[in-house]
Amino acid sequence: MINTISAEIQRAEIENDRQFVTALARGLGILSVFENSNIALTHQMICERTKLPKATVSRLIYTLLCTEFLAQDPDGGYRLGMAAIRISATAWAQYDLIRHAQPLMAAFAAEHHVSVNIAKEEGGEMLYLACCRSPARLAVQLMVGSKVPAAQTAIGRAYYAVADDFQRAHLRRHLPPLPEMETAQQLEMLAGHEAFYREHGYTLSAGEFSPDILAVAVGVYNRAEQRYTHALNASVPASRWQEADFVREIVPGLQKLAQEISAA
Question: Is residue 70 within 8 Å of 233, Cβ to Cβ?
């Protein structure tokens, strides 16, 4: 996370982005270095992880202590404070959708002999949050935490198709370059699949991400946020299915599954 924040700070400086508040980003950068840390961090450790000057870190830590986003241990180290913990708890509550989705996904995967995955956009890519694998082995074995490109995958195309204007703008801004595809080509591809989704209610990927994978995907509506925040796919080895048969047999059930997940 700190690398992403540091990159955004650098971008804002290069582009002279007047809307970007660098001091806030640096404060968030300090909070981010506590990710996956089970120990209190010293002032020196925070400086090393953020690569910020000691004086800057001191001022930011003082502010975060005053606002209870950090707390100080008796030995002088720092840990996340109650304000950060309360926000974290609120964020985790949003993952009730994923917990609700997992048994439904597992039942669908077992019934139809497909792999089922749910993902959200992060940094211009799709981040897998839950996976139920098919007994049939795929060439690319994805798992929770895996990231896949948006333009080349059914799940990324479905997310883009149902996303609101703000979400699309965020994805376009952070879309990572691909060796085989320029950013402009990715955007053109996403726009084409958005139109397809509006007409057919699903997106398809037939070998673009991996020659062995045939996948369809749909958007998942998040009632808590009152917008689409996730996408859901079903995938199989391309050698075992004809595309038309796969679409006919799997898409209606996948659309129903997305509605059941959205009802959480």
Answer: no
* Domains of the chain: residue spans and CATH: 1-87 (1.10.10.10), 95-262 (3.30.450.40)
> Of 208, 81, 222, 109, which is closest to residue 155 (Cα–Cα)?
208
What six digits make up the tokens of 122? 């992060």
Q: Among all chains, which residue has been given the structure tokens 């995907």? A: 217
- 165-172 long-range contacts, Cβ below 8 Å, gap at least 24? 167/121, 167/227, 167/228, 170/121, 171/121, 171/124, 172/124
Q: Identify whether the C-beta of residue 231 lies closer than 8 Å to the C-beta of residue 159.
A: yes
Supply 192's token pair.
């084409």
Q: Does the pLDDT at position 136 exceed 70? A: no
Quick count: other Cβ atoms within 10 Å of Cβ 39?
10
pTM: 0.65
Average pLDDT over residues 201-206: 95
Token pair, residue 77, equals 């180290």
Q: What is the mean pLDDT of the chain?
A: 90
Closest among 104, 175, 116, 123 to 142, alpha carbons compared = 116
Q: What is the distance, to the nearest Å, from the Cα of residue 143 to the centroid of all Cα atoms in its chain?
A: 13
Q: In three state form, how does the secondary structure of the chain look?
A: CHHHHHHHHHHHHHHCCCCCCHHHHHHHHHHHCCCCCCCCECHHHHHHHHCCCHHHHHHHHHHHHHCCCEEECCCCCEEECHHHHHHHHHHHHCCHHHHHHHHHHHHHHHHHCCEEEEEEEECCEEEEEEEECCCCCCCCCCCCCCEEECCCCHHHHHHHHHCCHHHHHHHHHHCCCECCECHHHHHHHHHHHHHHHHHHCCEEEECCCCCCEEEEEEEEEECCCCEEEEEEEEEEEHHHCCHHHHHHHHHHHHHHHHHHHHCC
